[in-house]
Design brief:
By secondary structure, the chain is mainly beta. The protein contains 1 helix and 10 strands. The strands form 2 sheets. Strands 1-2-3-5-6-8-9-10 form an 8-stranded antiparallel β-sheet, with no helix packed on it. The chain has a two-stranded antiparallel ribbon with strand order 4-7.
Length: 183
């Protein structure tokens, strides 16, 4: 986290992901007549579609108390599931601020603000009214440097605002992870 480890300046990153369907997709269209039946299984480990994801990150480290960063991520679905589900495209823009000096015991706080723009999903050429929209989410976290090669990450994600209509699930997440640098 400190400048003496990586030095000041700009860091640019390009990324790409490709997600292949698990085969465990939605069993049926949640907007069909069967959606309210006991046999309805809307939630599944995957959505049955292929996803390509591209991202660009820019970070700036200087004498300013915070390392500042921005991420742009574009998700592109390239297939329709076996039950006619086609998720809307999603674009995420994130602003990051990581404090460069620990506040106690090598704990570096950071903030993240994400704006998501999602197009409406599609089920058999029908656009459900409660999909798509604009979402703003926040995140508070700490990077705990245990030693030069091991760090712990604690963060809490929470919704701030959304333009979506209909019933939506607000996502609150608490995450803890350990990271180790391997030479």
């Amino acid at each position: 986290m400190r400048n003496q480890y990586l030095g000041p300046g700009w860091r640019l990153f390009f990324g790409s992901d490709f997600v292949v369907p698990t085969g465990d997709s939605f069993d049926n269209d949640p907007f069909s007549d069967l959606a309210d039946s006991k046999e309805h299984k809307h939630f599944a480990p995957g959505n049955g579609t292929k996803l390509a994801d591209i991202s660009f990150e820019a970070w700036h480290r200087s004498e300013f108390p915070f390392i500042m960063g921005a991420t742009v991520r574009q998700g592109i679905y390239s297939s329709t599931s076996d039950v006619g589900y086609n998720p809307g495209l999603s674009t995420k823009i994130t602003i990051h601020a990581i404090r460069q000096r620990g506040i106690f015991n090598n704990a570096f706080p950071y903030l993240k603000l994400t704006t998501r723009f999602e197009r409406k999903d599609e089920w058999n050429n029908i656009h459900p009214p409660n999909s798509g929209g604009t979402f703003i989410d926040g995140m508070l976290g700490f990077n705990l440097e245990i030693n030069e090669k091991v760090s712990g990450i604690i963060n809490f994600d929470f919704p701030i605002w959304k333009s979506a209509t209909g019933e939506q699930l607000d996502s609150f997440r608490f995450v803890f992870s350990l990271r180790r640098i391997i030479n």
